[in-house]
Amino acid sequence: METAALLEQAEPLVLSDPRRARELLHGVRGAAEINGDQHSLVTATCLLAGCDFFMADYPAARSGFTEALAQARSIGAHALEARCLNGMGLAHQKTGDYGEAMEFFLESLRLAQELGDEWGRIRAVSNIAAIHAELDEPEQALTLHLDAMTSARSSGHPIYEAATMSSAVMDYFKLGRFAESFALSQEALERVRELGLRQYEGVIRTYRARNLLELGRAGEALQECQDVLPHMHDIGDRDYICQVMMVRGAARFALNDVSGATTELADALKLAQEIGTKTQAAQIHEWLSRVLEAQGDLVGALEHARAHHQLERIVHARDADHKTRALSAQVRVELLKREAEVERLRNVELAQMNLALQEAQRHLSHQAMHDPLTGLANRAYFQQELRRLLLGQNGQQAVLFVDLDRFKQINDSLGHAVGDELLQQVAMRLCASVRGADLVARMGGDEFTVLLHQVRNAENAERVARKLLTSLAAPFELQGRELHVTASVGIALAPGDGHDVETLQRHADIAMYRAKREGRGVVRRFERTMAEGELERLELERELRGALRERQLVLHYQGQFDVQSGALVGFEALVRWQHPVRGLVPPGAFIPLAEDSGLIVPIGEWVLREACLQAAAWSGCQLAPGISVNVSPLQFEQPNFVGSVRQALHLSGLAPSRLTLELTESLVMGNVERAMTQLKQLRALGVRLAMDDFGTGHSSLSLLQRLPFDDLKIDRSFVQTQLSAEGGARRSHLLIEAAVKLAQGLGLQVIAEGVETQAQWDMLQSLECNFAQGYYLMRPLPAAQAQEVLGLSGGGRAAD
Questions:
Q1: Which among 27, 194, 215, 633 is least buried, having the fewest CB atoms inside 10 angstroms?
Q2: Strand, helix or coil at 407?
Q3: Are 96 and 279 a contacting pair, CB within 8 Å?
């Protein structure tokens, strides 16, 4: 058979049966060398590299395309040269070298346009679209792929039509439009089967499985993987074998087969590392992190999470993004050049285009290094600048990690428009608080970093951090609302706390989380012991999640007494953790962790239900006491909070008037209008409302008058000042007296907490305070002991 006929037979097999194609092409190369047929030799070499590519041997594919490219140029075969350039781009793209890939595709496009090769143009445009997809620009990718698909259909090239159709399936998937991706995959699958394109059939079926998984049909996704895997092994495409294994592992995880998922994903990771595809390896590390976390292996989960983020940075920031983005602008200008009658417009219009290209490159370079919402430096710019300073050894540098407290709740309750405006105002305040030589960056979400150049010492860095917090303390005016926002700041210093970018950022992050746990609105500098504490914190969080499931949480009840008569009138429910190893864990040791992790919401709901059930059970006692329950800010901001209170009352049968919900001043001040609406709904249920810790936050007389509170709880710090110096005791006495008179004037009852001495009790009686609680009156008791007190209570306070 002649070489031309063998090439014609081998070319479609590159996609459908690359192993068979290799056998034919080696025969073609031998015959072409004997006959001196250079064109056939180059074509065969190029197609052999294509076989290596579709079998996921990317180093061999690069080598083959390089050899074919040199041969094509030596004989002046420009069409083959364009094809080899395109293959080089594909091989670089698969290994995450996007800048080089874009350059090869651009050169291929230029040649195809010069030759009037419409199919070559479609091929290059489709691959440029794939780069957009890889760079998280799926909208642009989808537009280009659909355009290329239309061109391929109108020019009568079914293979390119099928190729671009399968690419559009991927674009829809990356956009999260899973139903559209799945629907198009049905049409595309029929098309590639008609053409016998087994390679594309495997790709489309892989994405069908991924779509099924995202659509919540994990069982069907697993079956699709089982069906397609032998197909991919038969083709020899190790890249998509790896993808199928990853999806199969994820599907097993969704079906609660954690052991099977771990094994499957580990095998997939090994294959991804073997073939050198960083993109796949990053995704598999992310899945393994989730699976190991579910198994309770937090150290392993953390290792895979770090590996995921490290690979993501390598893949997407290799050329600091601006190179590929500038090249994408150059592609658009290049297309305009070819379509604008170059000969007639060469002098004037091309000069204008070059100016426009330079401006576009400057604009895209700025975009690649700046956050589009705030205009601040982005992560890539921040890391580049920090790396430059570290390499230059220019004195001591400080990295400040600033994280807004409760930003998610603001975003969820007031909407993203308000959240975005808040981030913009925060950015302006941070910039106004540092020197011109310092750098403020937004890392994403509500996380900001500040790079302080040449700080003299740690105290200087802490002084700047406190200045940042002060700048954020003033109210924010957002769309007619006044919001109070706090932040937490962590500090790491170079070189003392780290010599590289990643270490410094991680240590500043750890210090920030320590600050957040210590009460928010706090500055903390990194210490070596904090890193060890992070693992302990992860372990304690895991145990706390288990405590909810395994019923290790218990309630203790502290009595509340009428100050004038001494009679027991109610209880405050206080949560405790009965740990099987640590013993009784006090709330101060786990409540901050619960708030940081979001576990405070299910814990708060459990406390509310349990307290209502217990109070209802005491209805038959001589005294049917009221019950007070603390409400966390995060719990209060849940959309269904009022519904959860209503449900707790309904399930327990407790009279609403016997339930008091205690809310802090700061909770109300966060969003006054929303709090007002929620409080009115709670009052409509018939429950009582108490302002807790009065005097420690943004106390406002106008708010007290507007908000529908029944009780005012004076913070223990005022009551216990009686034990300190005489001047402090006098001021405390005056403050408590003022609070009592204020509350009585507003028709509120006053509860003082933290009573620990006879002197404090006497003072409250003299000030005509209504109610009190504290260790002097009654320590928090388990339910059974509290019930004994109820049985004994006939009017006097309980004995210690």
A1: 194
A2: helix
A3: yes
CATH superfamily of 198-316: Tetratricopeptide repeat domain (1.25.40.10)
**Which residue carries 């405070």 as its tokens?**
600
Beta carbons of 299 and 270 less than 8 angstroms apart = no
Say whether pTM exceeds 0.85: no
How sure is the predictor about 356, in pLDDT bands with cuts at 50, 70 and 90? Answer: low
Give me the residue label for tokens 């004076």: 714
* Separation between Cα atoms, residue 128 and residue 137, nearest integer Å: 11
Give CA angle at 599 (650, 421), nearest 5°.
100
Angle at 778 between CA 755 and CA 609, to 5 degrees: 110
- Nearest alpha-carbon partner for 755 in 715, 713, 720: 720
Going from N- to C-terminal start, the domains of the chain cover 1-116, 132-196, 198-316, 319-338+349-369, 379-526, 539-791
**Of 515, 541, 552, whose CA–CA distance to 599 is shortest?**
541
How many CA atoms, within 13 angstroms, populate the side-chain half-sphere of residue 480? 3
By mean pLDDT, which of 258-272, 358-372, 651-665 is the weakest? Answer: 358-372
pLDDT at 669: 66
Q: What does the pLDDT look like over 6-56, one tens digit per residue?
A: 888 888 888 778 888 888 888 888 888 888 889 999 999 999 998 988 888
Backbone φ and ψ of 237, nearest 5°: -85, 95
Q: At residue 730, does pLDDT exceed 80?
A: no
Confirm if 517 and 596 have CB atoms less than 8 A apart: yes
The values of phi and psi at residue 662, to 5°, are -100, 125
> Per-residue pLDDT tens for 135-169?
667 787 888 888 878 887 887 778 878 888 888 88
Neighbours of 365 (CB within 10 A): 17
Architecture of domain 1-116: Alpha Horseshoe (1.25)
Collect all residues with Cβ–Cβ distance below 8 Å to 704 and sequence separation of at least 6. 691, 712, 742, 746, 748
CATH of domain 539-791: 3.20.20.450
Residue 550 φ then ψ, to 5°? -95, 15
What's the whole-number average pLDDT of the chain? 83
Same fold, 198-316 and 539-791: no
> What are the helix and strand counts (H, E) for the chain?
36, 17
DSSP string for residues in 527-565:
-HHHHHHHHHHHHHHHHHHHHHHTT-EEEEEEEEEETTT
